[in-house]
Write a structure and sequence with these properties.
The structure is a homodimer. Chain A has two helices and twelve strands. In chain A, strands 5, 6, 7, 8, 9, 10, 11 and 12 form an eight-stranded mixed β-sheet that branches. A four-stranded antiparallel β-sheet of chain A has the order 1-2-3-4, with no helix packed on it. In chain A, strand 5 and strand 6 form a beta hairpin. The longest helix of chain A is centred in the last third of the chain and has 16 residues. At the A-B interface, strand 1, helix 1, strand 9 and strand 10 of A face strand 1, helix 1, strand 9 and strand 10 of B.
Chain lengths: 175, 175
């Protein structure tokens, strides 16, 4: 049972007039409550060829390694969200470079976007959502302990692009 | 006054423990109702150097021209959303090519993403949200009657990239 955020009435699943899909419609006031995918924004912070990863202190994937990333907030740009999450999770200040990957994950209703980034100093330290933060050489990236598939895919593209000498934007899906 | 979608209780603005921003928190059950930016997905459908635009039959910007685009739905990928909106608004079937632009619009809490696309046939026709649909040569694009700044920015990048002979990805903000 769900309730209407506008009037507190009961929300039912129903196809509104002119629409093609069932929506959450309030039985009392008629409000339609759309539910849309969420954006997760992150960075790929680099320092002299090494990449900064965070080991997660929270579920899901407690103890696994990830790029700093999190839900974009209202009122900020994609780049601001990536820089904020990097500061919150890794205590790291970065200069954001180009957008690098955009990966749809329809089974969790998310789109993950990562920017390349240049770490500005080595004063990073774990935020409350991280157990530790560390720089990894490409040959020592913890491939078997990566928290999320979007992070693994992004790291693979980064390594391949770096080997080729050119970074390009990658848009793809994980289904 | 807002109500909790989980229990129907009163929702207040409050900073939850461990957080740094005020959230919509239910005074009765404690649920936190996060509000995040929405993704708008669209296409830049091309046919022999001409671009397909739709003239809007709905507000906002009734009567102005736009690329086919709309809110991404749960359960679909970014590319699927772009193709669906193109079919819904322009009755047009496309082969989606590369992601082309990603533009943050923080003052409306949206991120707009456009894919380049190849129109598969000329059987397009306006959907219920469009007054008309037409192909425009680059020299005849209706610059003064474009509905949204993200569409104008995307069209400008498309024309500049085409003149240069190379299409690249563009990430930017409108503030």
């Amino acid at each position: 049972m769900k309730f209407c955020s506008n009037c507190g009435g009961a929300v039912l699943s129903r196809v509104p007039p002119g629409d093609s899909l069932p929506r959450h419609v309030c039985d009392a006031c008629g409000s339609i409550h759309y539910v849309n995918p969420k954006l997760v924004l992150g960075a790929i912070p680099e320092w002299e060829g090494r990449l900064l990863l965070c080991r997660r202190a929270i579920e899901p994937r407690y103890g696994y390694w990830t790029l700093p990333a999190g839900f974009m907030e209202n009122g900020e740009t994609a780049a601001e969200a990536a820089a904020r999450e990097t500061l919150e999770e890794a205590g790291a200040r970065v200069e954001l470079l180009a957008a690098f990957s955009m990966i749809s994950v329809p089974y969790v209703n998310q789109v993950h976007v990562f920017y390349r980034a240049r770490l500005l100093d080595l004063e990073f330290k774990p935020g409350v959502e991280s157990l530790e933060v560390a720089l990894f050489e490409e040959a020592k990236l913890p491939w078997k302990d990566i928290a999320f598939r979007t992070v693994g895919v992004t790291l693979k593209h980064w390594c391949a692009d770096r080997a080729r000498g050119t970074f390009t934007f990658h848009a793809e899906d994980i289904k």
